[in-house]
Amino acid sequence: MSSVAPSIRAKFDSMPPELQQAVLSMDVQLETMNDLMSCLERIIAEGEKQ
Fold first, then answer.
1. In the beta sheet, which residues pair with residue 3?
2. Are 23 and 36 in contact (CB under 8 A)?
3. Helix, strand, or coil here: 30?
4. Which of 36, 5, 34, 6 is nearest to 20 (CA)?
5. Residue from 39, 36, 49, 27 nearest 7 by CA
6. What pLDDT does residue 12 have?
7. Is 40 buried (19+), middle (13-18) or exposed (0-12) by CB count in 10 A?
C-alpha cells in the first residue's frame, strides 16, 4: 500500500487526480520529493514505451 509523508503531501495533492492514482498504484512509500520525482520519472518512462 502506498503512503505519502506529510512533508510532501501538499505537493502530491497539487498534482492532477489521474497522476496521483498512477503514483499510488505503484505501491510506494513517498517520504521525500526525490521519492516522488522517481515515481514520476518511472511513469514517464513507461508512457514513452507505449
1. 29
2. yes
3. strand
4. 36
5. 36
6. 98
7. middle
